């Protein structure tokens, strides 16, 4: 569904469109026929042919100058659209506050999709191990709900570009060929979704009343894997058995304590997904899962992704 009740496609503003996910969101929005505006910071506009802007322009996006620090630029951009999607990094999550204020003041936005795009921050069970990573997202959710802003939260779990290129082996930049670390007992399942697919599912929600003020979860069949299953799959692809080295929960917690940044955060996210089961331990309504709601979206499976690494 990408049309509203009147049969017109909503106009979309993407904040963060020069970024990796934001670029995919803007292109998916345009491909689905939504007139799409990209808020671009002034330093980009001086370089119209830059690699982050050229694909946006080629796809038909309208570029407008602005930033989260410039309230008037936000208000002006928000006034041109029906939907706002924000894709700034999580460390900047609280910088979305002026954007929320602009959405409230403009009064024309039918849907806001804040920068989340990870595990459900209200479900993770790792206490304060993630250094306010999830608390910031929860604070933004509270503000959105207190202000009565129509919204959809996208909980896609891991992007494939994060951790999967090494088969969840922090420090490696390709999958292992001889020995693989398995964190925990190896049977707890995490979820991986390709960024372009996250973008497509996100765009499907924009005019869909079923996702209004709801969370969209992504748990695509074929993309929900334990570490043992990832190892099995990879062994099949390379036609070779790997030595599996099991890292107990206790050992992993010690590694987290001793690790420098950013390795520490990788280990925390691995602990969250593959030991605590934060992507999958809770039941979700079928009508809140992307592949159930939008079966027409063709997505990349983990197996297909691993084929590209053989
Ligand atoms: N689930 C996962 O595995 C996973 C992994 C990575 C990211 N994510 C999520 O994906 C989302 C986007 O992350 P990303 O890695 O795609 O980000 P990214 O590539 O770093 O892009 C960030 C974008 O935000 C823009 N931006 C930064 N500060 C801004 C400001 N003050 N005003 C306006 N725009 C500003 C940047 O503009 P400039 O080009 O001007 O800098 C850029 O377009 C986040 O919600 C993050 O949590 C999820």
Quick overview:
With 310 residues, the protein is of the alpha/beta class. It has twelve helices and twelve strands. Helices cover 35% and strands 15% of the residues.
Computed structural class: alpha/beta
Q: Report the average pLDDT across residues.
A: 96
Q: What small molecules does this complex bind? A: NADP nicotinamide-adenine-dinucleotide phosphate
Q: How many structural domains in the coordinates? A: 2
Question: What is the CATH third-level topology name of the largest domain?
Answer: Rossmann fold
Q: Which descriptor suits the 3D outline?
A: globular
What is the tally of beta strands? 12
InterPro entries: NAD(P)-bd_dom_sf, NmrA-like, NmrA-type/Isoflavone_red_sf, PCBER-like
Organism: Panicum virgatum
GO molecular function: oxidoreductase activity
Protein name: NmrA-like domain-containing protein
Could you please describe the fold and organization of this structure?
This is NmrA-like domain-containing protein. Residues 9-306 form the NmrA-like domain. One of its GO terms (molecular function) is oxidoreductase activity. Keywords: NADP, Oxidoreductase. With 310 residues, the chain is of the alpha/beta class. The chain has two domains: 12-160 and 193-220 and 282-296, 3-Layer(aba) Sandwich (Rossmann fold), CATH 3.40.50; 164-189 and 223-275, UDP-galactose 4-epimerase, domain 1 (Alpha-Beta Complex), CATH 3.90.25. 35% of the residues lie in helices and 15% in strands. The chain is built from twelve helices and twelve strands. Strand 1 (12-15), helix 1 and strand 2 (36-40) form a beta-alpha-beta unit. The chain is globular. The mean pLDDT is 96. Bound molecules: NADP nicotinamide-adenine-dinucleotide phosphate. NADP nicotinamide-adenine-dinucleotide phosphate binds at residues 15-22, 41, 44, 52, 67-69, 87-90, 92, 95, 115-118, 156, 158-159, 162.
